[in-house]
Design brief:
A four-stranded antiparallel β-sheet has the order 3-4-2-5. It has a three-stranded antiparallel β-sheet with strand order 1-9-6. Strands 7-8 form a two-stranded antiparallel sheet. By secondary structure, it is of the alpha+beta class. Helices cover 36% and strands 39% of the residues. The protein folds into two domains: 3-51 and 152-230, 2-Layer Sandwich (Translation Initiation Factor IF3); 54-149, 2-Layer Sandwich (Alpha-Beta Plaits), CATH 3.30.70. A hairpin with a 6-residue loop joins strand 3 and strand 4 (113-124).
């Protein structure tokens, strides 16, 4: 999740905790003979689901030559064709192409130098088929892996939904532990972390490659502390 979105969640949790503190004070004023506060700590999870918007394509390109300069030049020519091919699919935003590695070497018992560069390319899942077909037609460009990915906006939204669900589930469990008539009051929330699952399927076919995005999920785990009053006797 982006830092701004996480900060918004922290502010929201802080607001809930403030209201819980007011509630505790109010109940103690109404029930001055309360024997004590009982604390409950609950760990719970919540999930949210969506169909991914994006595909992450992993590729590498190479160029060879009798000198390092020639190998580098041939790789640059291939990358020029690659960028031109991807340009229209990325709406001109080449920042969606990220270099993951670069190598320049001379293999053992070879008279040629080889320059290679590996990339990850983020594209809309709706355009994945045409992009993969276009990449397969470029000499010295190879597809190594294809994954489906949630967009940043999707991931942020799902994390918020999953966190809300996790806290709601924890509150329900706390109510069951406290028993009928008790009112557990939220004291603190610790977010343990998020788990992503994106079971997309890639069918490699040079004629008509297909991407099946499936349903991705985000699961948040939280540990929540509650307090509730025992032996309540109203002030009369």
């Amino acid at each position: 999740m982006a830092r701004t979105d996480r900060l918004l969640l922290i502010v929201a949790i802080a607001a809930v905790l403030s209201l819980a503190a007011v509630q505790i004070v109010g109940e103690l004023a109404y029930y001055p003979h309360a024997s004590h506060l009982t604390n409950i700590t609950i760990t719970a999870t919540g999930s949210a689901y969506a169909t991914p918007d994006n595909t992450m394509v992993y590729i590498y390109a190479n160029g060879t030559g009798t000198t390092t300069a020639l190998a580098t030049s041939n790789l640059s020519n291939t990358l020029g064709i690659l960028n031109s091919t991807l340009f229209s699919y990325l709406s001109g935003n080449l920042s969606n192409i990220q270099t993951t590695s670069y190598q320049l070497y001379k293999a053992h018992n070879s008279s040629l130098y080889t320059a290679t560069e590996s990339f990850s390319v983020t594209i809309p899942i709706s355009q994945a088929g045409p992009v993969l077909t276009s990449l397969a037609s470029i000499p010295n460009v190879y597809i190594t892996n294809v994954n489906v990915r949630l967009s940043k906006q999707q991931a942020s939204s799902l994390m918020g939904q999953a966190l809300s669900s996790a806290i709601s589930n924890a509150t329900s469990q706390a109510q069951q532990v406290a028993g009928q008539g008790a009112r557990p009051m939220l004291v603190s929330v610790n977010v343990n972390g998020a788990y992503y699952n994106s079971p997309g399927i890639y069918t490699p076919s040079s004629a008509n490659p297909q991407i099946y995005g499936g349903i991705s999920s985000v699961t948040e785990s939280v540990t929540v502390k509650y307090s509730y009053l025992n032996a309540l006797v109203p002030n009369k």
